[in-house]
Fold this sequence. Notes:
The structure holds 2 protein chains of 2 kinds.
Chain A: H1 7-22, E1 29-34, H2 41-51, E2 56-61, E3 65-67, E4 71-73, E5 77-82, E6 87-95, H3 101-114, E7 120-125, H4 137-145, E8 151-154, E9 167-169, E10 172-174, E11 177-185, E12 188-195, E13 198-199, E14 204-210, E15 213-217, E16 220-221, H5 222-230, H6 234-237, E17 242-245, E18 253-260, E19 267-270, E20 278-283, H7 286-301, E21 310-316, H8 317-323, H9 332-337, E22 342-347, E23 350-353, E24 360-363, E25 366-373
Parallel strand pairs in A: 1-2, 7-8, 21-22
Antiparallel strand pairs in A: 1-5, 2-9, 3-4, 3-22, 6-11, 7-11, 8-23, 9-10, 12-25, 13-20, 14-15, 14-20, 15-16, 15-19, 17-18, 17-20, 18-19, 21-25, 23-24
Helix pairs in contact in A: 3-4
Chain B: H1 7-94, H2 100-130, E1 139-142, H3 143-160, E2 164-169, E3 176-179, H4 181-197, E4 203-210, E5 217-224, H5 231-234, H6 246-249, H7 258-268, E6 272-278, E7 282-290, H8 296-299, E8 317-322, H9 326-335, E9 341-346, H10 349-358, E10 363-367, H11 375-389, E11 396-400, H12 405-414, E12 418-421, H13 426-436, H14 452-459, H15 474-493, H16 497-513, H17 517-531, H18 535-556
Parallel strand pairs in B: 2-4, 8-9, 8-10, 10-11, 11-12
Antiparallel strand pairs in B: 1-3, 4-5, 5-7, 6-7
Helix pairs in contact in B: 1-2, 1-9, 2-7, 3-4, 4-7, 10-11, 15-16, 15-18, 16-17, 17-18
Amino acid sequence: MSDDIDIEDALEAVLHQCTAQLGDTKPQVGVLFTSCMDVDFTWLLGSIMTAFPGIELVGCTTDGELCRETGFLEDALALLLLSSDTVQFGTAVATDISQDPARAFASAFSSASRRIKGKPACALTFPDGLTTIGTALDTAIHESFGKGFPVFGGTAGDHFLFTGTYQFHNNRVYQDAAPVLVFGGEVHFAFSVNKGPVPTGLSFNLDRHAGNVVYEIDGKTATAFYREYLGDMAEQLTQFPLAVYEKGSEDYYLRDPLIFNQDDESITFVGNFPDNCQVRLTLVSRTDVLNSADTSNRAILQNDKITPELLLIFSCTSQRHVLGSKTNEKFSLLNAHSNIPYFGFYCYGEIAPLTPDTPTFFHNDTYVILALGSNDT
Amino acid sequence: MNKEKSPNTTRLRELEKECAYLRRKIARMDEQRERQEKIDDINRHFLKQSNERLLQFHEKAQFENVSKSDFLANMSHEIRTPLNIILGMANLLAETELSTTQAQYLSSLRITGRQLMEILNNILEFSRIEAGKITFEPEPFSLLKIIGQIEASALPLCMQKNLDFVVSHDPLLIMERKGDPLKLFQILLNLINNAVKFTKNGTITLLIEEDYTEQGCLVFNVIDTGIGISKEQQDVIFDRFTQANESLAQQHSGAGLGLAISKKLIEAMGGNMKVNSVPGEGSTFRCRFPIPPLAPSERRQLRYDASLILPDQFPQLSILAVDDIKENLDVIKIYLKDYPVSITTAQNGLEALQHFQDGEFDIILMDVRMPIMDGITATKTIRKEEKRTGTPPQIIMAVTAHAFQEQKNKFLEVGFDGVLTKPFFRRELIQTLFKFTVTDDGYPSSPPQGNKAIGYCLEYGRVENIPEELRDLLPQLLETIDTDLKRLHSNFTNKDYSNLYADAHSLKGIAGMFGFQQLASLINDLSQSVKGNNHTIATELLDSLDVYLQRLQNQGN
């Protein structure tokens, strides 16, 4: 990974680091993340494909990258190369996912699965994080991958510009797409997901909404409700998610506000809301965010059912904005108690089952860590 | 792409890159700092707003809690008023001649009526405990009396299920204690009711022991031979609205509050309650709390047991009973039909005021809620009139179904002398009338007429009030009492208890005939103590009788 201000020098540094670490090993698949938004991505992808002939490449633009060697960096270029004798990799891309996500994912999953022998074990995907904010990504994943099939990843960011994200597959650049990487063969995995912000204060009825657009909460327009409780700093209010409690449930998930619509005082959130739910506002503290990451990291390090060879981390962009200079403290447990390489990015929404054997879910404001290994202990 | 190769150019480019890199880093850091400051501001705003809203909700909840208490109080009143009539009439009906079938039906009516009252009381009591309004009124009381009341309440329940009910205690147990007798009664009755509920056959035992590990503590064990409670159930049975055996509990009345109330009351009194149980074999609820014994001198003060106040020991009273419900007035009249009282009735506060102006009453029994003029307004008017005219204060009792202590206090504040809570039974009414129509020094506000004046006047140190025509009887009467007391001493010393009972009975008759209430009370206590093998108390009572006689003789001379 490199955050050299010159993208050519950054790529050169990244390719050099990869080549040095690979030695004679030939990579089979690459994962590219970058929060440099003013780059000729076609040139970038072509250069990587040329440097490592025969690899399949997936990736996306982000809101920051992270890996063991450097911790968190923004304006950086991060490349992960994978190779295995026992684990198989297959890639594809789902296009026009905001139009017909289930069909697009089904087609991509089918293509990627055909590139591996045997049954797929799990998959990664990095859908467009802006065109899909009103799309029921998790429902589409259930329909196309199967409800019990574990899919992990995060939605692509654009370094918090909110003008457009990009997705990568091999040497092509996409928007409104979702690259898919399917794992097969002797792959083993474990994961942990934890939420950062903590619901605080009273519960309110979500009076009126349509998908991911909320019109009324507690008898007020959504914007008036946010203004009343959180003040009039719309730009930063996006860091303050609503905790959503489905009817009859004491557990919650989070939804981040993204656009405060002035015309009808509604708020567009990242992700949909169910009917008949209650919501609570959240307190956003650095301590809570760090604790959630620590909890996830500890769960993985203490999991004796897997010997991880790689840790993939997908964390909500809000978390790094909240943590600021403390962002790298999220990884202190991983740095102190293991030598396992980790790699990941800050995304606009996270994708993972909440717990093993439950369906894949689209999250906001979580920290997802996925441990991959090829040997079952 | 071409890159400069000259060293200077390369160095310059490197420096430019480094500067650009640093500028970018600084810009990102500035963005982040600004973002974090805003996040901190929003958090502060959010916490402030949340706290304000929570405070508003808290105040609203407190207000609604008061409304709930008012609602409970009103509900209590509305239910208690008709219940008072139902139970009162049922009790009166039980004193008439009934066929066996009618008696059985009536028994069921009375038992279920009492159960309804118990449930109502429990709900109200628990609401009060939850609201932190629990108060204790420690006073000297007789444990024997409580045991008697418990027996009277528990036996019908046990008989209905063919269960035996046994009370057992150390014969040397000091029965005169200091504590809150109502709360003790409530705890024990709750436990016994619970035991009866879950016992199909066998025995319910109330075992009372002195706790020798801690002075002044008593241990009450309620032991049943019922279905028992599993270990898991033992963890939850003291939670409110929980019953160990839901299916069985459904067959019985109850709100699932009895054990929770008992536990909270015991803990509030500084005690504890434990349960030992084996499913299928039975349960023992063991509660231990401080109820210290009275000092020997104080034990003698225990008197005015309502059960002893017989019509011939009761002062002649003129009573004004005020209630808008005719049946309530009828209950009072029937309760007092054998007592030397005259009763005038009124159906609202205004009528009561007219009667008050026209006549003299020893006591007014004033309902609180009435049409036209309520009892509070009437009482305030009477108090104003007394102040204006300088007349002595009229004794006015509030008769109400309001059961909460706060409400009782409110009634006292507006000018009532005391509160009689509906539904009440004959004994409570008589006890209240007796207590409130006797002056502070124990002298009845209205001395009895005829022979009874001798005893009253002597006992209360008003020998000058003895009618002239009765004074000649005095020496002979004192000698008879003296002789009888000596015989009682002798019989007790010789353990000739049958003659002691006979002499006691005879002396009690004389006491009743000539108005010696305290003498009758002491004689009755003596008989009870001897019957209960409580010889220490009996000895003290005989000593007290000697002191009493000495006082009478001094008065008589």
